[in-house]
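Q: My collaborator sent me two sequences in one message, no labels, and asked for predicted structures for both. Can we handle them in order? The first one she listed is below.
A: Yes, handling them in the order given. First sequence, followed by its structure tokens:
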Amino acid sequence: MIDVIYENENCIVINKPVGTPSLSDPSGDADALTLTAAQLGSELWPVHRLDRTVGGLMVLAKNKKAAATLSAEVGGHGMVKEYFAVVEGIAEGGTYEDYIYRDARISKAFIVKGERRGAKHASLDCTPIRTVSTERGERTLLRILLHTGRYHQIRVQLASRGNSIVGDGKYGSRDNGAKHPALFSAHLTFTVSGEKITAKSKPDLKIYPWSLFSEEDYE
């Protein structure tokens, strides 16, 4: 069962499970769009997507008009998207501005110096919530506000500053205590048909490294 957070006549907000692809992909594994459509018994349209390894809030449209409106909102950065992340070390807050280059051959992103062919500007706000000391070292819970939606943006921007996301071996994490990168889509705000919608969710606090922090830290 896909967890439904919010639903109206135009859209549905779900909690995409970690490890489930957002849309159909070459793996052939059941995807969030298909699973939710089957659960509702109606056709749905994609608006945006989350990486397979990222869980949390995702919006699906119930009709073509809503899909066009919401897709334009995402493309124009009108949809507010916030994430929780747990990183290695002590992270500094602030606005991170970089240029990111995607190497499609190895499915990985890199920070590059200044503008160059194929590189795209990336921006986010990073707010540290709490740092705890563990036998693996310091771990910091962050709130991330995305201003742009680049490929692996949060993962590579944090890693480039020495704060790899826990469990994200692709971008430098040495902490194998997490099965997936500790990144979660936690807060969405958007407008459709004149209605402003806000949805919130939390990761599974029983699972490491989310379990290092109290429930109040995720408010």
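Q: And the one she listed second?
A: Here it is, processed independently of the first:
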Amino acid sequence: MGAQQASTGQQFTQSVPEQILAAVETLDRLETIAEFADGQAMQQGNLQVANIADALKDIAHIQKELIVEENPLAQEFSQCSQQVIQSGVQQLQQHQQQPEIRELVETAQQTLDTVSSGLQTQPTTGQQSGRQWSR
């Protein structure tokens, strides 16, 4: 199963524009950092930060899946999620004395730019260029 996933990932990497690949990689990084920050905040008893980090983790995961699947709703979800990410960043900025929160804020801001420019290169008509069905 691992070999199949690796070849699928390799096919995806070869079949998509660089901007889309960068968006997926940035979302993956945001998901990982948000998960770590969530755990740290929970240990410190800071539920507000933990909840925001958890939401950013979930948003990054869903957005990444929609892009990889070339889902026609990827751009629409991105527009909504960008507002939520910006709001989360604003709320987290007062907690930037912790290095994981500072890194989460920086990564979230970078993700906003990377995803919006990446999705501009993806077709919006629902064309599934990466999936070809044969009979």
